[in-house]
Design brief:
40% of the residues lie in helices and 17% in strands. With 381 residues, the chain is of the alpha/beta class. The strands form 2 sheets. Strands 3-2-1-4-5-6-7 form a 7-stranded parallel β-sheet, with helices on both faces. Strands 10-9-8-11-12-13 form a 6-stranded parallel β-sheet, sandwiched between helices.
């Protein structure tokens, strides 16, 4: 049987990993998950991605990377690609794609087909990672057989490169989900708030994502400061800014109104607990939490960046704001919406309809199948 490998550089199970695992589990695709592990802070047995793969029935193979550029790991990847007769290597984002390209050096015309998914172009948090992005875009990607981009906004940027245009494919993120009835939403809301320790009568903003500069989580706390005391903020995620955010909450007297959940792999099952999900990122690809919120019927108020307009819509009533909006204006927008008792339900229902129609897991798999066939791999099913 032909074999596919999805190669990640992951310490958690975040958007790209969730996307692949949830959409392909149990579908019969002949594939394994390989991962570049940058440290030994976890063993293979308790690595979150390893655990997720075991739970879903995927073979997981770790490669411990000792530095940003580790030729020994590339050589080891090459050995496994040959030994396992891998026919298609699908890498995700910058480092995994760079290592995939290095591993294929010298394999000749019978090398595996090479596919890369770019999970979000803008928003690299610092100068060094912006340089990696440029290296990825102009040096690495033109050597791939196919390049996938998760939103129309990113596709437009990549298509400006003549070296990529002929191999570029739009592959919007999509997820399987379950629509909730009003009664199911009410039960999930009650259960989630019990888990979080938040009173039923409170109004809750949700922030879901890495606590890193490009996700801009401080703005969520600043917005909370401008809202009446009945509002709470529940933060699901970990990252380099967590200690700064906790200190900000203490310094401004809102620590009792903020709940830090940490890494929350089951947050997609708790989104009905929020009144409103807040996305204040400086840049996004096409975030999975927006799709998960749609399946839960929970509205999202977001900066107009990346693929978010594709999910939320650009028409009247879309919960989109300009990225330069101040926290005070963001809070004013939330309070204005809250004057209409049915606003949240209408927005949540509209988002659910859009996600069910245009961002399903089935659509995601069908597009991926077409891309694989376009590069000459025809046995995935």
């Amino acid at each position: 049987m032909s074999r596919i490998v999805h190669l990640f550089n992951s310490s958690l199970v975040s958007g790209p990993e969730n996307l692949v695992l949830r959409n392909l589990a149990g579908r019969g695709w002949p594939m394994e998950i390989w991962n570049l592990e940058e440290t030994r802070t976890t063993t293979e047995e308790d690595h979150p991605l390893a655990q997720a793969c075991r739970r879903l029935g995927f073979v997981y193979r770790p490669f411990v990377v000792k530095s940003r550029w580790d030729p020994e790991v590339m050589a080891k990847l090459r050995e496994y690609l040959i030994a396992e007769r891998v026919e298609l290597l699908h890498a995700h984002d910058v480092k995994a794609s760079t290592y995939a390209l290095g591993a294929l050096r010298g394999l000749g015309p019978r090398r595996p087909r090479l596919v890369s998914t770019h999970h979000g172009i803008d928003g690299r948090p610092d100068f060094k990672t912006k340089l990696y992005e440029r290296f990825y875009r102009y040096i690495v990607l033109p050597r791939f057989d196919a390049v996938l981009t998760v939103s129309s906004a990113d596709e437009k940027i990549l298509r400006t490169s003549s070296r990529l245009a002929s191999r570029l494919h739009l592959h919007r993120n999509g997820l399987e989900g379950r629509s909730r009835t009003r009664q199911e939403r009410a039960l999930e809301r009650h259960q989630a708030r019990g888990e979080w320790g938040v009173a039923e009568e409170a109004k809750i903003l949700g922030f879901v994502g890495r606590l890193s500069p490009e996700k801009n989580p401080l703005k969520a706390l600043e917005t909370l400061r401008e809202l009446p005391s009945v509002w709470r903020l529940v933060v699901a995620g970990v990252g380099s800014l967590e200690s700064d955010l906790r200190e900000y909450a203490r310094a401004h007297g809102i620590q009792g109104r903020v709940v830090f959940l940490g890494y929350r792999p089951g947050i997609s099952q708790e989104l009905a607990g929020f009144d409103l999900v807040l996305c204040v990122s400086r840049a996004e690809g096409l975030p999975l939490f927006a799709l998960e919120a749609g399946w839960a019927g929970t509205p999202v108020l977001a900066h107009r960046v990346g693929g978010l307009p594709e999910v939320l819509g650009e028409g009247a009533g879309a919960f989109l704001v300009d990225p330069d909006i101040s926290p005070r204006e963001m809070a004013r927008r939330i309070e204005l919406l809250d004057t209409d008792p049915d606003a949240w339900d209408r927005a949540g229902e509209a988002l659910k309809v859009r996600v069910e129609s245009d961002f399903s897991g089935q659509a995601w798999r069908q597009t991926l199948q077409r891309v694989y066939e376009a590069v000459g791999f025809v046995q995935a099913h």
